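Lab meeting prep.
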Amino acid sequence: MATIHQRLADEHGLAVSVASLRRAPKGLAVVTFRVHTPSALSVGTAGQRTLLSRALPGRSQVPFGLISILTSLGLAALLVVLVVLPAEIFNSTLEENYAEVQGWFWDCPPRGWCAA
C-alpha cells in the first residue's frame, strides 16, 4: 500500500515534507505540510530544459530581419494607441462629470474627504 507521499509524487509530480509539528490543546497535534511543486523556471533534472525554456526560442532562433523588427514596432505602436486613447477619453469624461459621478457614491464636497 502506497503512502500519501508516494501517491502525490507518482500521480502529480509533487513532493510533500513536514514543515512543523507542534502540540495543540487537549493533546492534539498540529502538523503543517509543505508541498513542493516542480517549478517551470527552475533547472530541470540532469540538465534537461524545463517546459518554459523549451517553449521560448533560443538566442539563435530570434529573427532580426527588417520585416520582423518593423512588425514588432507596428504592434507596439498599435498597443500604445489601444491603451492610451481609451484612457485619455475616460479621464477627460470623468473630469467633466466628476461631481455627478461622485454623487453616485457619496454626498461629499467635490474632491474632498467624506466626514465619517
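Slide two material, second protein:
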Amino acid sequence: MNCYRHPDKEGIAACVACGNFICAECDVIFRSRHYCKACVEQSKTLNFKSALKRSTRNRMIAGVCGGLAEYFSVDPTWIRVAAVLLAVFFMGVPVIIAYLILAIILPKE
C-alpha cells in the first residue's frame, strides 16, 4: 500500500491511531508504535510529554517540584510533600543535594 499523504511513496507501516498507511517521511515512532504526522499534530489523544523543565508558574524556590509535577501530570503539592517526607527520612542532605543539582541542570520553561 502507498502512503496516504504521498501516493508516490510506499507505505512502511500503518498509523496506530487512524489506521492510514504512512511512508518513512510521515512516520513518527512514539513508545515503539507508529503514528502519522497528522495524528501527532492532533496529539490530544496521545500522551506526549514535554521535556523536564523547571516551572515558572508553580514555583516556591527554584521550580523543581513544580516542573516535576507538570512532567508527571500531578498536583505540585504531592511532589512537595514527597520531597519533605524524603528529606525527613534521609536527614535532608541527599534531598537538598538532588534539588540543587536539578535546579542547576534543568532549564526554565
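Talking points for slide two:
The chain has four helices and four strands.
The mean pLDDT is 85.
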